[in-house]
Amino acid sequence: MEELEIKLKEEGKISRLTNKTFKFDPRLGEGFFAANYFLKSNKIVKENNPGHIVTMQFFQRRDDSMVCGLDEVIALIHKFAHHPENLEIYALNDGDIIQANEPVLKVTGKYEDFGFLESMIDGILARRSSVATNVYEVVKALNGADVFSMADRQDEYHTQIGDGYATYVAGIRKVSTDAQGYWWGGKGMGTMPHALIQISGGDICRAADLYHKTYPNEQVTALIDYNNNVVHDSIMLAKHLGPVLRAVRVDTSKALIDHYFDDKDTSGFDPHGVCKELIFALREELDKAGFPNVKIIVSSGFTADKIREWVKLGVPVDTYGVGTSLVNNMTVGFTGDLVELDGRGEAKEGRHNMPSTRLAKVPYPIY
């Protein structure tokens, strides 16, 4: 990848990325994305009260969060701040676990040189850290099980590159699109959509044959809930494909009850959607039919809490597909405050310059 500068540090952390790496919209420097009152404040200070040295501090209010977006923010400051060489920046690293009220970034310099970037810094940190924290929670819940991100379809496409980076930092390496893997050189992975089965007239075997004909060097992973008859269709497809079938993916809608339960008592549990009882039955029937090597992938509505419960109960899932809970759940919000003025403490009531032994000075420039 052109100008790919991500390198692994010890313990899997990422080295600082530079403003050569991030492709910024030039309008960021023109105030197009900045909150208007920051632009006004910048103009007022520049014209009427310039030259004061301030320290701006950024923090959030959630324990056990994973910070992400710091490299992007530093690159933003270095590219769009006025006289960035005169700014002093201290920051944590992307992927660090942080606690409530812990500072993750401090910028010291003339307010008129960087103050207008405040809301954009908040937004980058909030988005990237929320995604990283959500992924971090899922990875902890997996207890070693496999997972891939299906988050591309849960937000508009511009978010994929940044969200993919945050996803990688937090520990998920399998993604759906090339855009999600852009920063670390990953490629999108996938199987077949329901659309391929529909175009094959609802015939899952034909859809799988067409897939294998087009990609003869790949085993087939098949979506198996098209007819809402997961157990029956999985056995049928396994007999049809033999060793060519790698896995089946169950993606049953929460509005449906699989036909496997048509003649069974479901009074003791909720049989809707991808329920654990269906997956236990699927594994049992595949094994009995002589297909213990066919893996089971599940998707549709999985969260860290649900995965944690299923792992604890030993539900026989090989891979979880997770989307909505990774990116449509803003769990971490950042605040920027001015906490020092010309070397002395000066902040609004309730805020102060919080000491930190973890912050490291960021050199300028980063190459």
Structure write-up:
The protein is of the alpha/beta class. It has two domains: 10-132 and 331-362, nicotinate phosphoribosyltransferase; 137-327, Aldolase class I (TIM Barrel), CATH 3.20.20.70. 33% of the residues lie in helices and 15% in strands. The chain is built from eleven helices and 13 strands. It has helices at residues 36-48, 70-80, 111-114, 118-142, 160-170, 194-199, 204-214, 230-241, 276-288, 304-313, 324-327; strands at 53-59, 65-66, 88-91, 97-98, 105-110, 146-149, 220-223, 245-250, 295-298, 319-322, 335-341, 344-345, 360-362. The strands form three sheets. Strands 12-11-1-5-3-13 form a six-stranded antiparallel sheet. The protein has a five-stranded parallel sheet with strand order 6-10-9-8-7. Strands 2-4 form a two-stranded antiparallel sheet. The protein starts with 35 loop residues before the first helix and ends in a 5-residue tail after the last strand.
Entry summary:
With 367 residues, the chain is of the alpha/beta class.
Question: What secondary-structure arrangement, pairings included, does this model have?
Answer:
Layout: H1 36-48, E1 53-59, E2 65-66, H2 70-80, E3 88-91, E4 97-98, E5 105-110, H3 111-114, H4 118-142, E6 146-149, H5 160-170, H6 194-199, H7 204-214, E7 220-223, H8 230-241, E8 245-250, H9 276-288, E9 295-298, H10 304-313, E10 319-322, H11 324-327, E11 335-341, E12 344-345, E13 360-362
Parallel strand pairs: 6-10, 7-8, 8-9, 9-10
Antiparallel strand pairs: 1-5, 1-11, 2-4, 3-5, 3-13, 11-12
Helix pairs in contact: 2-4, 4-5, 4-10, 7-8, 8-9
